[in-house]
Amino acid sequence: MRSLTPASIRPPFARYAHGIEAPAGARLVVTSGQLGITPDDQIPDDPQDQAAICFGNITAILAEAGMGPADVIRINAFVTDRAHMAGYMAARDAWLADVAQPPASTLVIVSGFTRPEFKVEVEVTAAAV
Q1: Which GO terms describe its molecular function (predicted)?
Q2: Contact, 61 vs 125, CB < 8 A?
Q3: Residue 84 contacts residue 47 (beta carbons within 8 Å)
Q4: 104-109 vs 120-128, strand pairing mode
Q5: Can you give the pTM of this predicted structure?
Q6: 91: alpha, beta or left, given left = phi > 0 and alpha = psi -120 to 50?
Q7: For the structural domain made of 2-128, what CATH number should be given?
Q8: Distance CA 28, CA 83 (A)
Q9: Digit-coded pLDDT (tens) for 24-56
């Protein structure tokens, strides 16, 4: 993977890349949006805890394809309030702590999800040769 961060534009605001180039022939994995709900249907109130569950689910999905966080080329995340951004970003940064090259990343504030207790949703695209 190659990080695309042109010197002619402002550097990223946080630990992400403006763009990532995947090599020709790479296998792609695209996840559905993951919500902060445990296998036994528990939903923590804290947005950071919800985000950590989302990333744990994504780790499991990627593992099914023989991939991990280092193979992620794009993160799309959604939170229901600006106040939830810091918790989401802390969980994201912890998940990427051992990743040398961070992926492209977008965070959007939305009006809500299917159930009001959900505060965070995360989906990723991963690529590996």
Answers
A1: hydrolase activity
A2: no
A3: yes
A4: unpaired
A5: 0.93
A6: alpha
A7: 3.30.1330.40
A8: 33
A9: 999 999 999 999 999 999 999 999 999 999 999
> Where do we find the tokens 């403006």?
18
Please name the amino acid found at residue 13.
F
The pLDDT, as a whole number, for residue 49 is 98
∠ CA(116), CA(117), CA(118), 5° rounding?
90
Buried b (16+ CB within 10 A) or exposed e, 64-91: eeebebbbbbbbbbbbbeeebbebbbeb
Q: How far apart are CA 67 and CA 77, in angstroms?
A: 20
Residue that has been written with the tokens 């690529």 in this structure: 127
- Domain boundaries of the chain, sorted by first residue: 2-128
